[in-house]
Amino acid sequence: MRGHSRTNASGIGVRSAQRGVVMVMLGLPFALIGGVWLMYLLGHAFSIASAVGFIALAGVAAEFGVVMLVYLRSAWEQAKADGNATDEGLDSAIRHGALKRLRPKAMTVAVILAGLLPILLGGGLGSELMQRIAAPMIGGMLTAPLLSMLLLPVLFRWSRRRELARDG
User: Fold this and answer.
1) What radius of gyration do the chain's Cα atoms show?
2) What CATH number does the domain containing 120 carry?
3) Residue 45 belongs to what domain range?
4) CA 18, 20, 23, 29 torsion: positive or negative?
5) Long-range contacts of 103-107 (CB under 8 A, 24+ apart)
6) Phi, psi angle pair for 11, to nearest 5°
7) Residue 78 domain-assigned?
8) Is residue 162's pLDDT more than 70?
9) How far is CA 132 from CA 36, 48, 110, 112, 135, in A?
């Protein structure tokens, strides 16, 4: 089917959607690193409870990535519609799309940290188990936003520059 443009139900090209999935999946290990670091610093061993924390962290990190790519893609499509399908237009669209996500991402991270820090620092019955769940999430909330704000725009730019070179 080379040469034929296939789209999915949302009108996004299948190849573009596959690239987006790969970008998000490549970013997950980097997001999970923060959880590993904090567990190491706290001296926590890996357990079922910490696995639950990592699963929750992976979900949040994937959501960060998907939403970032939606905003980047939207800004790029708007730039192309405005006739600015150049390298400079791509850079401007990436800045615009990423900046639109900065405040919502900061608020999401702040709320997650505000909710989980008391669990991590608290004591009492069941606190040791809850700390094992909260630690990966808190550590990951320090690295996941950085990843989605720094790595994903770079990967997006790289994939779109290849597209520009191919089409231009």
Assistant:
1) 19
2) 1.20.1640.10
3) 20-167
4) negative
5) 105/64, 105/68, 105/145, 105/148, 105/149, 106/145
6) 85, 5
7) yes
8) yes
9) 11, 9, 20, 16, 6
Residues 106-142 have pLDDT tens digits of: 999 999 999 999 999 988 888 889 999 999 999 999 9
Which pair of tokens denotes residue 21? 């999935």
Name the helix (H) or strand (E) containing 25. Answer: helix 14-42
For the cut 50, the answer to whether the pLDDT of residue 4 exceeds it is no
Asked if residue 8 is part of any domain, the answer here is: no
The CA dihedral of 29, 31, 35, 38, to the nearest 10 degrees, is 110
Asked whether residue 144 is domain-assigned, the answer is yes
Q: How many domains is the chain partitioned into structurally?
A: 1
58 in Cβ contact with 34 (< 8 Å): no
Element (H, E) at 126: none
Rounded mean pLDDT of the chain? 87
Assigned token pair, 66 = 């998907």
- Over range 4-26, report the average pLDDT: 68
Q: pLDDT-based confidence at 23, cuts 50/70/90? A: confident
- Whether 10 is in a domain gets the answer no
